[in-house]
Specification:
Blueprint: E1 5-7, H1 9-17, E2 24-26, H2 30-33, E3 42-43, E4 62-65, H3 70-81, E5 87-90, H4 93-100
Parallel strand pairs: 1-5, 2-3, 2-4, 4-5
Length: 102
C-alpha cells in the first residue's frame, strides 16, 4: 500500500497565496462546511465520494480536506485503492487551517 502524501497547511496557504489553481475537495458534512471552507475547495461529503467520482477532476494533484485530517486520509486511501492518482491529504484538517488563519 502506498502511503498517503501529506500536505501541511503552511504549504497549502503559501501555494494559494501565490495564486496556484488547486484541486481541493472538502469531505466534511454539510453542517461542518456551513462554518466555512477554504476558498476554491469543492464540497463532496465523504459518504458521497463513491457516487460522485465523476465530479473529481483526476488530472494531477487532488487535495482532500476534513476537520482533523483523519477522514480525508481515509478518502485518499480508498481512492488510491481504486486507482485514482495524485491524492493528497491536508494534514491537520480545518482545525490546523483555522489555527493558522486566526
Amino acid at each position: 500500500m502506498n502511503s498517503i502524501v501529506q500536505l501541511d497547511v503552511f504549504t497549502l496557504k503559501d501555494r494559494l497565496q501565490r495564486g496556484e489553481a488547486l484541486n481541493m475537495i472538502d469531505v466534511r458534512e454539510d453542517e461542518e462546511v456551513a462554518h466555512g471552507m477554504i476558498p476554491g475547495a469543492k464540497h463532496i461529503p465523504m459518504n458521497q465520494i463513491p457516487d460522485r467520482l465523476h465530479e473529481i477532476e483526476q488530472n494531477g494533484e487532488i487535495i482532500f480536506i476534513c476537520r482533523s485530517g483523519y477522514r480525508s486520509e481515509r478518502v485518499c486511501e480508498y481512492l488510491q485503492q481504486i486507482g485514482v492518482k495524485g491524492v493528497v491529504n491536508m494534514e491537520g484538517g480545518m482545525l490546523a487551517w483555522s489555527q493558522l488563519n486566526d
